[in-house]
């Protein structure tokens, strides 16, 4: 009831959304931002809310690179706490994600799975711009906020639309719109005649190999500036996995 009361302060009488839950979590556990990603498996996921641009970039890097606290929390079903991203342990565990997260402005990330029993819905990511652990009480509240977000996702699955809480920086950043990634994946399926998982893997691999945001590469595919070709025979080493249209 105390957690829902904190969420209620954010709503100001409006229906509660994931944006309100994230805002309440940011205030309640003294973090700098939050993001919610729903996941079917580590390859199939969608960012449904981020509180600010740093949080959005953290979700983007994990989606692009396939590594990070969010990925591990979903796979393990338990919290993953990166208390100091500048530590050698973090760099060893997430060698590509960690430098990108630090460049974005995050120093600590707390990934909390959204689940009921064996059913895993996604992950609530919280970040701080300074290293360090949560207090015992902050961590307990963070878990409660994760449970609240999971309930909201179940309500969405029952018929409500997931919250996107569009704000100015999201309107200005085309990579914040995950629908474009899905559209690009569908176009690559048609180009390669492959599965959705394989098409998304090719899209993500191209973004990683060319040091680009996943959303930017997806936009090039959707706007037909980039197309993917089937794999060449094993003895052909001159073929690139994506070619300008």
Notes on the protein architecture:
The protein is α+β, with helices and mostly antiparallel strands and 245 residues long. The chain has 11 helices and 7 strands. The protein has helices at residues 2-11, 18-28, 53-65, 69-76, 88-93, 97-104, 136-157, 168-172, 179-192, 196-209, 214-222, and strands spanning 33-41, 44-50, 80-82, 108-116, 119-128, 226-228, 242-244. The strands form 2 sheets. The protein has a 5-stranded antiparallel beta sheet with strand order 2-1-5-4-3, with helices on both faces. A two-stranded antiparallel sheet has the order 6-7. β4 (108-116) and β5 form a beta hairpin. α9 packs across α10 (196-209). The longest helix is centred in the middle third of the chain and has 22 residues, at 136-157. The radius of gyration is 19 Å and the shape is globular. The model is unreliable at 158-177 (pLDDT under 50).
Features:
245 residues, alpha+beta, 5-stranded antiparallel sheet, two-stranded antiparallel sheet, 11 helices, 49% helix
Summarize the model shown.
By secondary structure, this protein is an alpha+beta fold. The protein contains 11 helices and 7 strands.
DSSP strand tally: 7
Give the helices and strands as they follow along the chain: HHEEHHEHHEEHHHHHEE
Mean pLDDT: 82
Rg for CA atoms: 19 Å
Assembly annotation: single chain
Number of helices: 11
| CA-CA gap between termini | 55 Å
Q: What is the share of helical residues?
A: 40-55%
Which outline best applies? globular
With strands numbered from the N-terminus, the spatial order across the biggest sheet is: 2-1-5-4-3
Note poorly predicted spans: 158-177
Q: What is the SS-derived class?
A: alpha+beta
